[in-house]
């Protein structure tokens, strides 16, 4: 009897564990947010966070966006031609990139690049007692380490998404005009007229949410890392995994919120 | 005065500290002795509030360690961690001056740097290391930078976790003399974890021997010779 119920027990335990983690991460996020004013005392840490999360992510985000936009244009053209609807390429690429692929690709790239590096950095600080050293030097690790990074994530990732959108549209534009015979100026006007302001609001909102998720999970995992090199590896892996999954889940939720019936 | 009352701590099923009580008068230097893994570091981390004990309490000058008391306590406390725990992203002088730059006082850059170089000088490091990063230094030099960071700002309480490990005998002797001097000059209360009997004779007034989660022997350095504890005798024999 008990043996038959074992899978259920395990499932229940996993669900409870997940809920507990979501609760603790949410609390952690709020704890970072209330420290935003205090973190202005550390301009250098803030600058470092903005550089690490925003500026240094530009190349990877830009390249991902261009390739995604280009591939999307090719696909829409190929798919559209089956029902003689090749002409919709500018419109579909526009909403496809701005509403979905731009934010999602950027979100996933941030989860890979930023979440891993922040989680590993903070976990290393934790296991080498640097976080404890901060505390004994009368400096709150949440204010000094977490708050600048979370703030930078919330501010820079929407900007990255905006740039990613533009570059994604550009990738589609290049393929459509150079390879698929579209007229340049009319491609641009069609795309632009098709986009609704709400599409852009959704896109940037997704950026802020994904940035918040990716950075908060990274800091949480890093500061709660177990002992030794193993602790660093485990913290990094679990943060990246959770960030990627949560970015995709939040993406569905946000799309549903904006466009669901 | 630092008082520990009935402190116990386990990690999982492993009991690390069992009912440790201790009173340390201001201006006293205590050495904690014990085999590796007997909870010496854990005990100091509990006093610093970095680990919460399962039972027992800590008093500073008779006051229970509330958040406010702890904040005031840490502002007057310098700590050298076992693995130095220098900040990788900051230069040597920024590490040493961290408390001055980021603490309540907010000392200016030029003054902070000067004071950091003075502190580096006290631990036998030349000003030219000031602009290096911790990763550029040997383990022994990192230890001394950690020590400089601990003593800057004339703290009232000092914690040194194995200050001599990884140091050559000459530097080690100098560091011992420095610790003694700080305790005597500043009237600081110091807790030092060490295995080195020569160090203990230089720096300590009292000795606490931890073993099997208990405080096995606690007394004055002058009473060490007359103590008849077999484990203590083995430490003394080295
Ligand atoms: N955060 C922790 N989690 C689990 N076990 C710990 C933790 N910190 C210390 N320990 C264990 O407690 C014991 C005492 O550690 P420690 O105080 O570092 O020893 P030492 O006397 O050598 O300084 C060791 O067995 C160590 O593995
Ligand atoms: Mg230790």
UniProtKB/TrEMBL annotation, chain B:
SUPFAM superfamilies: P-loop containing nucleoside triphosphate hydrolases (SSF52540)
Key words of the record: ATP-binding, Nucleotide-binding, Transport
Gene3D superfamilies the UniProt entry points to: P-loop containing nucleotide triphosphate hydrolases (3.40.50.300)
Entry superkingdom: Bacteria
Domain ABC transporter, residue spans: 2-237
Pfam families (UniProt xref): ABC_tran (PF00005)
Entry's Gene Ontology molecular function annotations: ATP binding; ATP hydrolysis activity
PANTHER family in the record: PROTEIN TRIGALACTOSYLDIACYLGLYCEROL 3, CHLOROPLASTIC
Name this polypeptide is given: ABC transporter, ATPase subunit
Biological source species: Maritimibacter alkaliphilus HTCC2654
